[in-house]
Amino acid sequence: MIRTVATKPYPDQKPGTSGLRKKVPVFQQEHYAENFIQSIFDALEGFKGKTLVIGGDGRFYNREVIQKAIAMAAANGFGKVMVGQGGILSTPAASHVIRKYKTFGGIILSASHNPGGPHEDFGIKYNAGNGGPAPEKLTDAIFEKTKAIASFKIADIGPIDIDKIGTVEAGGMTVEIIDPVTDYAELMESLFDFDAIRANFKYGFRMRFDAMHAVTGPYAKEILERRLGAPNGTCRNFKPLPDFGGHHPDPNLVHAKHLYDEMMGPDAPDFGAASDGDGDRNLIIGKGIFVTPSDSVAMLAANAHLAPGYKQGLKGIARSMPTSGAADRVAEKLGVGIYETPTGWKFFGNLLDADMATICGEESAGTGSNHVREKDGLWAVLLWLNILAVRGESAKQVVTEHWATYGRNYYSRHDYEEVETERANALVDELRAKLGSLPGTSVRGMTIASADDFAYHDPVDGSVSKNQGIRVLFEGGSRVVFRLSGTGTSGATIRVYIERYEPDKSRHDLDTQVALADLIAAADDIADIKSRTGRNKPSVIT
Ligand code: VG1
Ligand code: CO
């Protein structure tokens, strides 16, 4: 039976950088999740009888919302849903399933790298038929629907057993529970030189993969240990837990510090990696060397031809605006296009669909390619493994040689988390107001060449996205960028991105924070961060 249930709008369902993210208790309000899911359906057209993919990162409240989404898909007229077993599908795996089975789209339940649990974060996002996050036009339309919603439709089908692989009929719709790993593992096998990687492991190459008790555990176990023969124990924290073991599943130098310490220690294995809550981010640390994500994109792009899936070369490279310019130098050398987009993977979709870019990356530990329409943590790890196996070199050798060839873009991001929203907004508003007066002035002995609020003109569909981050460029190419996070769930997070290019090989082994010290001080002078936030240092430095 299909029920139409009366409901009232919630005013706060505007999707952020990557879907709607809120604390679990917010999602547990009456009809909160239903409202958002119905608004997604209301913003879509032409899905009657078609297939919807549903999966999530396994966090607290995942199972409940999966049941709601299945029952609502049936009531709204989908012909079929494909659901990851146990409600699990990593973000890149969901993107692949949508593409492989040519489904109408998918609903991904995740708050990514944010913590999980009864008082932590939850999220819902919609991915379109190309496998990519809904573009801005669609997320805007969804938001409009949430503001006017009066009812939602749900089928009384009772809970579906999502742990049992197979197909059942429910509410006039087919429900297929699929293995979340197999399709994805096959895709990886088709892109990379598994023989070379396997041989490397066989001859003693050692790595550590930390799944942080998040979604990549089962994927990494299957691919690294079973298919590639890495020794048992290579994968750590591989059991997905609803609260990620009480940790932040954020693979950065703060939340994965144990891995960093191990990789810098005397018994370090050859290679260390980790992924986030929903499996789309990657942390790469070679023995004795951390690879900053902006560098990783550039290095993967420069060496991608060593993997079978990319041996024809790249069509182009795309990076988000705050990501360092390291990839630009690679694109220039390869003679391919380079595109600078706003933060968030949804902006890469058009470039990938139009075959203008093959590899994309963000400074926030997101790297991916045209194989899916999401960033992909394990993909980045496997491409690194492929490159190291074929080159027969260590990560450190690859990195230092890259810097010697292209120069080094010293890069760091400073985050001020949970700042009072009004204070953060005021800081950005004032910065915006003085942009015009900055060029020509000098800060800490450096002259500002230009300053603007980044606007993106999508070269494929002509759409324009404004206010995507404030850039201050100095003479000589250094820059600082300021923007507010669009993924947080409490207060505001101010992100400051700092970059300086160093061509001189003899100056490539400085400590990053030391190399950037003048710019870091200049950023504070320009935006007055410390006094305005009352913080004397950032909460997270990556
Ligand atoms: C952050 C990152 C951005 C990334 C987004 C989603 O957004 O900066 O690069 O695409 O998270 O990643 P923001 O608006 O907080 O800066 V994930 O792994 O959370 O889906
Ligand atoms: Co993520």
What does this entry look like structurally?
With 542 residues, this protein is of the alpha/beta class. The protein folds into three domains: 2-178, Alpha-D-Glucose-1,6-Bisphosphate, subunit A, domain 3 (Alpha-D-Glucose-1,6-Bisphosphate, Chain A, domain 3), CATH 3.40.120.10; 183-406, Alpha-D-Glucose-1,6-Bisphosphate, subunit A, domain 3 (Alpha-D-Glucose-1,6-Bisphosphate, Chain A, domain 3); 408-541, TATA-Binding Protein. It has 18 helices and 27 strands. The strands form six sheets. Strands 2-6-5-3-4-9-8 form a seven-stranded mixed sheet, with helices on both faces. A seven-stranded antiparallel sheet has the order 20-21-24-25-26-19-27. The N and C termini lie far apart (52 Å). The mean pLDDT is 95. It binds alpha-D-glucose-1-phosphate-6-vanadate (VG1) and cobalt (II) ion. Alpha-D-glucose-1-phosphate-6-vanadate is lined by residues 17-18, 112-113, 276, 280-281, 320, 343-345, 362, 364, 366, 485-487, 495. It catalyses: alpha-D-glucose 1-phosphate = alpha-D-glucose 6-phosphate. GO terms for molecular function: magnesium ion binding; phosphoglucomutase activity. Pfam families: PGM1_C_vert_fung (PF24947), PGM_PMM_I (PF02878), PGM_PMM_II (PF02879), PGM_PMM_III (PF02880). Belongs to the phosphohexose mutase family.
What labels describe this entry?
binds cobalt (II) ion, binds alpha-D-glucose-1-phosphate-6-vanadate, A-D-PHexomutase_a/b/a-II, TATA-Binding Protein, metal-binding, 542 residues, 7-stranded antiparallel sheet, phosphoprotein, isomerase, globular, Alpha-D-Glucose-1,6-Bisphosphate, Chain A, domain 3, 33% helix, 7-stranded mixed sheet, alpha/beta
